[in-house]
Amino acid sequence: MLTPFSQQNPYPSQRSVTYSKNGMVAASQPFAAQAGRDILARGGNAIDAAIATAAALTVVEPTANGIGGDAFALVWIKDKQSGQGKLHGLNASGVAPAALTLDAVKAAGHQEMPLYGWTPVTVPGAPSAWAELSSRFGKLDFAEVLAPAIKLAREGFPVSPAISDMWQRAEKKFRHEFNEASTEHWFTTFTPNGHAPQPGELYRCEAQARTLESLAQTRCESFYRGEIAAKIDAFSQQTGGYLRASDLASHRAEWVDPISVNYRGYDVWEIPPNGQGMVALMALNIMSDFDDIDARDNPEVLHRQIEAMKLAYTDGHEFITHPDHMRVSADALLHKDYADTRRALINHEALDPTPGKPNAGGTVYLAAADGEGNMISYIQSNYHGFGSGVVVPDTGIALQNRGHGFSLDEDHVNVLAPGKKTFHTIIPGFLTKGDVPMGPFGVMGGFMQPQGHMQVIMNMIDFGLNPQAALDAPRWQWMGGKKIGIECGYPAHLVREMACRGHQIELAFDFSSFGRGQIIIRDPQTGVLCGGTEPRTDSSIAVL
Fold this sequence. Notes:
The chain is an alpha+beta fold. It has a domain at 23-254 and 364-405. It contains 18 helices and 21 strands. The chain has helices at 30-41, 46-60, 102-107, 126-137, 142-155, 161-177, 185-190, 206-218, 221-225, 227-238, 245-249, 277-287, 299-319, 330-333, 336-343, 449-461, 467-472, 492-500; strands at 18-20, 23-27, 70-78, 85-92, 157-158, 202-203, 254-256, 259-263, 266-270, 364-370, 375-381, 391-392, 397-398, 429-433, 436-444, 476-478, 483-487, 504-508, 516-522, 529-533, 540-543. A seven-stranded antiparallel β-sheet has the order 1-20-19-15-14-9-8. A seven-stranded antiparallel β-sheet has the order 7-4-3-11-10-2-21. It has a three-stranded mixed β-sheet with strand order 16-17-18. Strand 17 (483-487), helix 18 (492-500) and strand 18 (504-508) form a beta-alpha-beta unit. Helix 1 packs antiparallel against helix 2 and helix 5 runs antiparallel to helix 8. The chain is globular and about 60 Å long.
């Protein structure tokens, strides 16, 4: 069972679990977590803190997210009068521009969606998420909430070690790949001194500070229907892009009903498609009826986890896309009967999975909680590192390359179409027990995300690890076919046994591809918050 307040941690070399009574913000960068904490101290709630943290992350961690990216959120709001609460879902992902057609992309000579340049750029949704969350649930003035991010951009900050490493890797790659007018401003924006910042080196971006001020003053209207939209449109037309002011003007963040499965008495919640949270839920559904999940170091348990995730992911890639274009309903994919058919395929040997037949019908993650019982699970991303490489001049805005996820196969469910949302990798998670909120969790990192969700949930519920231990524990990831990446911290006997079962094992000594997570769990009796933060990056928890 979930025991977030257990002192036992089998990974004592990592950081300690964190407790607080009045508020907590867990994020992948200390300055961002502190920005959220400061907003709590000024009387803001968890939603205000999350917006402040998210905006600050676009400044201090541009290697993974930005103003030009997408966002999703799961928000638990407690009613002060009744004491009851409700979970709300927000989908702030954008669509393919109207001019980005299948014929246009193929006419440009592409056999698959490229990773860089204007072609993979979709309408950014992150600013709309900030404005919508603030309007519906925030307490403080929007400008006050964005003030810490503006200050960080204008005055600068010392770059943290893990982010500096990612920044330097990106620059080395981009020096060889970026040679078009659409991407030349990446260098003037992110290497102002001629190189990526070293650890501890100060980085400031006045252009981003001015953009954030415009967003603060207009509640992000300027991004979609104002001066910033005009700048994006002009640069797109000037450099051969598809994105237009009309695409930005038509964007709205969408409130959605979260989806869930019950896993051993706990409800695990995700955002519905176009997000890939379905994959985590399908994998947990497959695992839920195994009655001998007794220990992390049991080879049979690890083998079943891997096989369940392979089956779920194979279905996810086959069926998940923009909800209006799905050929199979979410209910059909999450039905217990369908989970039974997939579970029956798991035997002693590694599978090379194929899709089933259900009945038809760079990312940052943060978690925040306040002393009133409100909690939020929030994630935003430029998709692949800095995104498309397209940086709008004099704005500090790096545009996402989310459109890379579209298929150019006309028969594929996720085929490119104007006005369509692609299969989305970023997913926030939330855990409840009955009507009681337990708290937000998430693991960022592309296609590792649902795999990380499954593993940290099982670490807490099946293996009794507290949030910090659940994040400290070594991870694995399915990499296609029978190929499995395993962090070198896994016991040798488990690795050998997986190889004997036919898994093609790749031991990893670089942990950057195994995701980065945050968890906050609230004790329903005392209200005490218990938080864990990712040891694989510069993560931090700030408390009130």
